[in-house]
Design brief:
elongated; alpha+beta; Protein kinase domain-containing protein; transmembrane helix; 15 helices; 2 domains; 6-stranded mixed sheet; Transferase(Phosphotransferase), domain 1
Length: 400
C-alpha cells in the first residue's frame, strides 16, 4: 500500500514537473514569437519612414494626425475579418473599423517602393493637413504592417456612381438642383486640392470616388495615393471613359487631366448616360456630335429637362464642353468650374424645382454593403492601370 502511494506521489510530481516544463516551453515560444513580431513591426515602421514621419509631426506641432499602433488596427478590424471589407480595388482593400469609439475606414494599401519612402512620408504630412468639408478626412496611418494602412473618416452612404445607377434604373429621382450642388461641391473639393502649396492631383476622377454623406453632401476621396506634383508617370492611371486624351499621349499628369475627367462627370449628370455605352461609343463623342448637330436637348436626361430650366442646362453643357477641350491648355481651372457651378445651382430656374426627396439607407449588413452600398474610399472595380505597352491600344478616340 505504501509503495502504491509512493508511486502515485512520484507520478503526480513528474506529471506536474512535465506540465510545468511544457508550459514554460510554450511560454518561451510565445515570447520568442512576440519578440520576433515586435522586431518585424519595428522594421516595417522604419522601412515605411515612420521615424521620419514621427519627427515631422513633432516638429510641426498639432497637425491632427494619429500614428496608430498595430494592435489597435487589428482590434478595430477584427484581424482584418472579411466581414469588415467595404471596398476592394487596384490600390488596396478598405475595412470598416472602430478606433477610440469612432467608426473609421481603414485602407490597406499595396506595398510601396523603397525608393518612394521619403515621397510617401511627405505626402502623408501634406494630406493630413487637408481640411475641407467636401473632402474625406485622412485621420492617420499605421506603418507597422508589411504595407502602410491609411485611416479615413467613415462616410456611410452611397457614392455618386451608385446614385447615378439608381437614377438610371428609375429607383430614385435626382433633381437638377441636387445634381448641380453635388457637382459644385465636388469641383470645389478638387479646386482646393489643386490650390495647395504642393498641389494634389487626383489623376483618376470618377463618380465612384465621390462619396455622398448624409443629405447627399459630396465627399471626394481617392487622394491618398494621388500625385503631389506634376511629373511623368511610370504607368498610366485612370478609368476608361474618364481618361484625358492628353494624358494618354504624354503620360504627364497635370491639373487639366482632372478637369477633363470632371467634364465627363458633368455629362453624366446632365444626360444620365454612362461614359461608355455597350457598343463602346463614348459619351464625350456623342455629346460633341450633338453640339455640332444642334440636337443637344435630345441627349439630356428626360427626368430633369423642361422649358423652365433648359437655359441652365445649356450653360452647364457649355461648361462641360470647355472642360473637355483638346488640347487641355485652354481648359478652365477647377476653381473657375466650381464658381460657375455654384452660380448655376443658385439660379432661379433651379431653385424653383421640386425639393429633393431624401435617400433613406436600407438596413443592410456590412457584407451586403460591400457589394451594394460600399464606400470605396478611392477604389472601384472600374478602375484600371495600364502599362506603357498598352499605350497604342488606348487611342484618343477610345478615351474620348
Amino acid at each position: 500500500m505504501a509503495v502504491q502511494v509512493l508511486i502515485g506521489v512520484v507520478v503526480c510530481v513528474l506529471a506536474g514537473l512535465f506540465g510545468f516544463l511544457g508550459w514554460e516551453v510554450i511560454r518561451h515560444k510565445r515570447n520568442i514569437r512576440k519578440q520576433a513580431l515586435l522586431r518585424q513591426t519595428d522594421e516595417y515602421f522604419q522601412q515605411h519612414g515612420g521615424q521620419i514621419l514621427l519627427e515631422m509631426i513633432k516638429a510641426d506641432g498639432n497637425v491632427g494626425f494619429t500614428l496608430y499602433k498595430r494592435e489597435d488596427i487589428e482590434t478595430a478590424t477584427n484581424n482584418f475579418n472579411k466581414a469588415h471589407i467595404i471596398g476592394e480595388g487596384g490600390q488596396g482593400t478598405v475595412y470598416r473599423g472602430v478606433l477610440d469609439g469612432v467608426v473609421v475606414a481603414v485602407k490597406k494599401c499595396k506595398e510601396i517602393d523603397e525608393s518612394r519612402k521619403m515621397e510617401f512620408v511627405h505626402e502623408l504630412v501634406i494630406l493630413c493637413r487637408v481640411n475641407h468639408p467636401n473632402i474625406v478626412k485622412l485621420l492617420g496611418c499605421c506603418l507597422q504592417f508589411e504595407a502602410p494602412l491609411l485611416v479615413y473618416e467613415f462616410v456611410q452612404n452611397k457614392t455618386l456612381q451608385e446614385l447615378l445607377d439608381l437614377q438610371r434604373s428609375r429607383r430614385f429621382h435626382v433633381t437638377l438642383g441636387t445634381r448641380l450642388r453635388i457637382a459644385a461641391e465636388s469641383a470645389d473639393a478638387l479646386a482646393h486640392l489643386h490650390s495647395l502649396p504642393h498641389p494634389i492631383l487626383n489623376g483618376d476622377v470618377k463618380p465612384a470616388d465621390i462619396l455622398l454623406a448624409e443629405g447627399l453632401v459630396a465627399k471626394v476621396s481617392d487622394f491618398g495615393c494621388s500625385t503631389i506634383n506634376e511629373k511623368t508617370q511610370v504607368v498610366a492611371k485612370g478609368t476608361l471613359g474618364y481618361i484625358d486624351p492628353d494624358y494618354i499621349l504624354e503620360y504627364q499628369l497635370t491639373a487639366k487631366n482632372d478637369v477633363y475627367s470632371f467634364g465627363v462627370i458633368l455629362l453624366e449628370l446632365l444626360t444620365g448616360k454612362r461614359p461608355l455605352s455597350k457598343g463602346r461609343k463614348s459619351l464625350t463623342l456623342m455629346f460633341q456630335e450633338a453640339m455640332e448637330d444642334g440636337t443637344l436637348v435630345e441627349l439630356f436626361d428626360n427626368d430633369i429637362v423642361d422649358e423652365a430650366n433648359i437655359r441652365v442646362m445649356r450653360q452647364v453643357a457649355e461648361l462641360a464642353n470647355q472642360c473637355l477641350v483638346v488640347p487641355g491648355t485652354t481648359r478652365p481651372a477647377m476653381a473657375t468650374v466650381a464658381a460657375k457651378l455654384r452660380q448655376l445651382a443658385l439660379a432661379d430656374e433651379v431653385q424653383r424645382c421640386p425639393p429633393q426627396q431624401p435617400l433613406v439607407l436600407e438596413d443592410l449588413s456590412y457584407m451586403e454593403m460591400g457589394s451594394t452600398m460600399s464606400t470605396w474610399y478611392g477604389q472601384s472595380r472600374t478602375s484600371g492601370v495600364y502599362s506603357l505597352e498598352d499605350k497604342p491600344v488606348l487611342s484618343v478616340e477610345f478615351a474620348r
